[in-house]
Amino acid sequence: MVLYLLKRTTHTNKPMKLKLIASILCCLACKGLSAQQKDWVHYVNTLQGTNSKHELTRGNTYPTTALPFGMHTWTPQTGRNGDGWKYQYFKDKIRGFQQAHQCSSWTRDYAVFSLMPMVDELVVDENQRETRFSHKDEVAKPNYYKVKFENEITTEISPSERGAHLRFSYPKGKRSYLILDGYTRLSGVQIYPKENKITGWVNNGEGFKRGWKSYFVIQFDQPIKSYGTWENKRNTVNKDSLTAEGLGKGAFVQFESGTKVQIKTASSYISLKQAELNLKRELGSDKTLEDTKANAAAVWNKSLGKVEVEGGSKADMATFYSCFFRASLFSRKFYEINEAGKPYYFSPYDGKVHDGYMFTDTGFWDTFRAQFPLNTLVQPEMHGRYMQAMLDAYEQCGWLPSWSFPSEAGSMIGNHAISLLADAWVKGIRTFDPKKALDAYYHEAMNKGPWGPANGRDGVTEYNQLGYVPYPKYREATAKTLEYAYDDYCAYQLAKMIDDKHYIEVFEKPMYNYKNVYDPATRFMRGKNAEGKWSPNFDPTEWGGPFTEGNAWHWQWSVFQDTKGLINLMGGYNNFTAKLDSVFTEPNKVNVGSYGGMIHEMTEMVMANMGQYAHGNQPIQHMVYLYNYANQPWKAQFHAREVMHKLYDATENGYPGDEDQGQTSSWYVLSALGFYSVTPGTGEYVLGSPMFKKTTINLENGKKFVIEAPANDSDHVYIKSASFNGKNFTRNFINHSDILKGGVLKLEMNVKPSLNRGLLEEDKPFSLSK
């Protein structure tokens, strides 16, 4: 374009020509700069948090290649089939490239199969076919993964929502094979040599109805030279075989030596016909992998561009957008689009096909705290669909989801679906029947389900009779009491918003049950037996017992709904803030307690070297914001920034513990904006200290909410003064409804704390006792 315009100016006068050239170059430079600013994808490192193992997790992530909340993702595989640690950064061999869904290394994956390119000899055994690579030959972005093996094979992957576009480039002159591994359990394959295609299905994972299958289709753009099937239990090979079904069945194909083959694949939980439709709709028009790569980049830039941050270091930008990427993967879409363009899904709950939307792969114990509140802000349409999907799940299996993977597992503790529902309603997301939501929660709160401690209520009879769950009759009883009380508040809040007097009366008393496990003598939450006696030999550093994955220092603060009530129990503001301070100044020693040995959460707390503050797990993640309730908001500002700087980065060691389906990432994203959702269900975000000089939230309603902090840097972490849309702003919180209206929150940042700002009662965030 520049050359063309230069030629057109040849016969004009020289000054005019130079002026025009300068103008053109300036415009192009500005255009290039603008394009660069909008390329959020290049900041993301999908290897963030992958240097994990059983003893010490740095995120427990894998280099996910996917679209936002995609039904399927793809990843390189360094671990054995069935190993929860799919990809570990410290390993130097890859044995396959998987279709994956795993949201935690502590749970098994489902609907998995893998592809692995080989040269020279056909080697199917996963332990013998693994091939060496180096991270310097690896590219890991949301829209594109690439790795070159030491044997010169290059693999590239770009995603669609329900499939992927892959390319394998084999070295010249080398026999070129591709192995399809059926993973664990049952699978089936069918090879179509004349059509250069393989179809099949896999049946792996937990909790599915009998006969469930994930159907896939794989289309090659190069002719198949030879083929066969194999099985991965004894690694026997059947050459020239076109079809196989059974345990661990797979396939292999051979191409012309040294070829470059493009592969399009898609899967469906409904039928092979739907898998073919998914492939055609999502990848059919992409002639090359570059097309898919560019399309995926556009989708990700639009999604990541919902929050635009400016005025931070390159490292901070990388950390922010890498975390925002992780916060945009779960919950996973579990629905497909039929021939008429309508959503429908195979239900993991009742094994039938239903119209509408369904989502899965998350544990609410982790994600109710920040991941779902972040979605209410940047993904409200999807969040609204999710709320109705939860009630559909209740209809299909008789229980609200608590830990879906993809069906209900009942893992962890609490009944936090009601937190999501109440938080959505208070924020104006009203896509569901609130009365039906309360009925479903009442069933949850008054019964114990068959699957796990969070499926219904563990200790429900005693909780309703005593006002707490007794320990040691029930493990983790005090933690359960605290979380049941918060959930009961959420039900009360939803009932209050719709003026349902029955449910207001049912839940207005138990939402204060946290008081029943507080010991005024030690000023800690403690285990209490059915006779009302405290557990003996109390040590606040002892993990487990009446607590979940933590100790008394961590669980002291789980009174989300009534921080002022907790302050009163502890003897006032000074005692409360002194105890908050002590979390950071106490020695970081560990009493392993009922765990009997060091678990990774303990190791991560010790390594963080922040006293008893254990950010690597969820129970204490909101704690730093509680200073806002007790006349010391500047300490929340200091500690929020300290945690962001010290415990997060965009590298393979980027997290202080398990990433947990977007929760630990969402804590960072919200905190980097300058606020956090201490109490989902109130519609409030409690202020901290923003990471960047300017942040723009591009809301779905078309408005923009801007946080300006021009003096912000690593030293200027304290809010000296604030204004909202030009008016003085002294509150330590901001309402979701105010954010939705758009506007500018301007913060004057300082190197010294402002000790007299935000101390009035009306400046404090919500508490029941307030």
- Major sheet summary line: 10 strands, antiparallel
Q: Low-confidence runs (pLDDT<50, min 5 residues)?
A: 1-37
CATH architectural grouping of the largest domain: Up-down Bundle
* Oligomeric state: single chain
Query: How do the strands line up in the largest sheet?
Result: 2-5-6-7-8-17-12-11-10-15
Ends apart, CA distance between termini:
66 Å
Question: What percent of the residues sit in helical stretches (DSSP H or I)?
Answer: 25-40%
Total of domains: 2
The number of helical runs is 21
Q: Can you give me a brief rundown of this structure?
A:
This protein is α+β, with helices and mostly antiparallel strands. The longest helix has 24 residues, at 14-37.
Structure description:
- The protein has 770 residues and is of the alpha+beta class.
- It folds into two domains: 41-305, Beta-galactosidase, Chain A, domain 5 (Distorted Sandwich), CATH 2.70.98.10; 307-763, Glycosyl hydrolase family fold, CATH 1.20.1610.
- It is 29% helix and 22% strand.
- The chain is built from 21 helices and 35 strands.
- The strands form eight sheets. The chain has a ten-stranded antiparallel sheet.
- α9 (380-397) packs across α10, α11 (434-445) packs antiparallel against α13 and α13 (477-497) runs antiparallel to α14 (501-507).
- The longest helix is centred in the N-terminal third of the chain and has 24 residues, at 14-37.
- The radius of gyration is 27 Å and the shape is globular.
- Mean pLDDT is 94; it is low at 1-37.
- This is Glycoside hydrolase family 92 protein.
- Residues 274-750 form the Glycosyl hydrolase family domain.
- One of its GO terms (cellular component) is cytosol.
- One of its GO terms (biological process) is carbohydrate metabolic process.
- Keywords: Calcium, Hydrolase, Signal.
